[in-house]
Amino acid sequence: MAREAEPGSVIFQVTDGVTAIDTFMGGRERYTAGYLLEAREPTLIETGPGTSVEPVTRALRQLGVSAHDLAHVVVTHIHLDHAGGAGAIAARFPRASVWVHERGAPHLADPTRLVASAARVWGELEMREVFGPVEPAPTDRLRPLHDGDAIDLGDRRIDVLDTPGHASHHVALVDSRSGAVFTGDALGIHVPDLPVLRPATPPPEFDLERYVASIETIRRHARSILLFAHFGPLTDVDHTCDLAIRRAREWTEVVGDAMRETEDPEELAARLEETALRDIQTGAEASLDLEALEDRLRLLSGIRMNAQGIARYWRKKREREAAEVS
Ligand SMILES: [Zn+2]
Known about the structure:
Elements lengths: L10 E5 L2 E5 L10 E5 L5 E3 L7 H10 L9 E3 L5 H4 L2 H7 L4 E5 L3 H5 L2 H20 L10 E4 L4 E3 L4 E6 L8 E5 L5 E4 L4 E3 L4 E3 L9 H14 L4 E3 L3 E3 L2 H22 L6 H19 L6 H12 L1 H23 L1
Parallel strand pairs: 4-5, 5-6, 6-7, 11-14
Antiparallel strand pairs: 1-2, 2-3, 3-4, 8-9, 9-10, 10-11, 12-13, 14-15
The structure holds zinc ion (ZN).
């Protein structure tokens, strides 16, 4: 049966033939998870960023997967905390195919634009220390994914669900054997220590309607547990999907309401922060050290970035509506 991650563990089994691997983004524990599917063709879901390459390689070796064994690497989307290490992992595991949404594939083959846009958000220091170098993935091993595709692992299968909203090229992945779904960031992030489920609504592609529709898609396909990239398993599918939808709607409303008074990004972020803190306090143990968890929340689903993503969503929506009227 699935269980929550044990503090301090690097790898832990989550369900039938699925092991979670702490990918230790920037050396940080319990921020980012990858998953190994045991199969005739062993498969890694999510590589973590460039700073994860060493810990992931170590974990795979510990699990008996050597350089020539790994057959597939699948990423839910190209954001650096999920796929920044894909090129370097592909170099170390020379037989692995690298699967990514067709719209993400060009950016793994040539990460120049991906790196430039991340650097604008994060700055030099965090690019180096948190995310690390981004190597291009070999084009001859890149495999583009589309909605409804199936990846055959020999004795189990991964079904691909188009799940835009967090990003337009986001996919969720269904394991045929366990019925678990790898959710990437489609439902937001879950911090098990708090616990809190927080929407992930970054620019430039956050779209509320698509985000909600994608969560409903995941709900329909999940036959057991949800496996978050941040971080680990959640067992109550319906409750988690309901909460993820409710929070995303609340956050979008809060920023939309604030935009009637101001366009100032700092003010929008401040309004959203109030809501986000309430989300934590109503779900958390009173004794928790929130400051210690702030770095994790900021790096995985920062309030400023989320507020900007939602504001951009509203502006695009208004432009669309204005264009329809005229
Ligand atoms: Zn993420």
